[in-house]
Amino acid sequence: MIKLAPSILSADFSMLKNNIEIIDEAGASMVHLDVMDGSFVPNISFGPVVIKSLRKITKKAFDVHLMIDEPTRYIDDFCNAGADIITVHAEACTHLHRTIQQIKSKNVKAAVALNPATPLNVLDYVLEDLDMVLIMSVNPGFGGQSFIPNSLDKIKSLRKQITDKGLTIDIQVDGGINTSNVRTVIEAGANIIVAGSAVFKGDIASQVKGFNAIFEEIGE
User: Fold this and answer.
1) So which residues are the catalytic ones?
2) Which domains, from first to last, does the chain contain?
3) CA quadruple 80, 13, 116, 5: dihedral positive or negative?
4) Residue 97 labelled as part of a binding site
5) Is 174 annotated in some ligand binding site?
6) Each residue of 167-210: pLDDT tens digit?
7) 141 among annotated binding-site residues
């Protein structure tokens, strides 16, 4: 099943409750929450206190993407705030395996994100422990960037590895995805699509329904 995870980083923060309610009612599968620390990426967003507050608005899965240095320091806080999935960056973890195990010990799904220049082989000894891999198709830190085309080869290679190993792991892709290019991303092997500007810059409900219509068509 192909799922849409709208990134609230592109939402109107003065109407965040309203925006989340709209994507919920329009049929988004989960809510993607980008946490940025101003160190690992050149921007700052929000932390567990905000996520805990937002947890009251919707029952959709909270897909928490930690773009922060040494995330192990805060994993328990984000789990307790209501995260259903926590994604850490391989580039930000001194002990990646230990960090994954910490997430799973809280009965939360564990995922690892890879920046555009990070090779897939960093997952060689942890892939079996993961519920999801996030392929960044832009350099993280800001919304509204253009999709990096060679991300498609990376997605294809990862999907082949997962299939060859007989694993059940989601592939999420984040960065520059819209209704014009999402088909190629799905055809490459992705099944969870993160979209920010393509959802929130316009008629939010219509944008969500537009993505879902494409997903249904591909799934037929």
Assistant:
1) 34, 174
2) 3-219 (3.20.20.70)
3) positive
4) no
5) yes
6) 999 999 999 999 999 999 999 999 999 999 999 999 999 999 99
7) yes
143 pLDDT tier (thresholds 50, 70, 90): low
Whether 172 contacts 132, CB under 8 Å: yes
Which whole-number Å values give the CA distances from 50 to 24, 47, 82, 112, 178, in the listed order? 18, 6, 10, 22, 27
How many angstroms from the chain centroid is the CA of residue 50? 18
**136: exposed, middle or buried (C-beta count within 10 Å: 0-12, 13-18, 19+)?**
buried
Nearest C-alpha neighbor of 58 from the set 107, 9, 8, 132: 8
Under DSSP, the state recorded for 138 is S
Q: Which DSSP state fits 177?
A: -
Q: Count the Cβ atoms, other than its own, within 10 Å of residue 178.
A: 17
Joined tokens for residue 116: 């555009």
DSSP class of residue 7?
B
Q: Give 71-127 pLDDT, tens digit per residue.
A: 999 999 999 999 999 999 999 999 999 999 999 999 999 999 999 999 999 999 999
Q: Which of 155, 146, 154, 150 is nearest to 190 (CA)?
A: 155
> What tokens does 199 get?
């959802």
For residues 54, 203, 45, 85, the Cα torsion angle rounded to the nearest 10 degrees is 50
DSSP 38-106: SSSSS-B---HHHHHHHTTT--SEEEEEEESSSGGGTHHHHHHHT-SEEEEEGGG-SSHHHHHHHHHTT
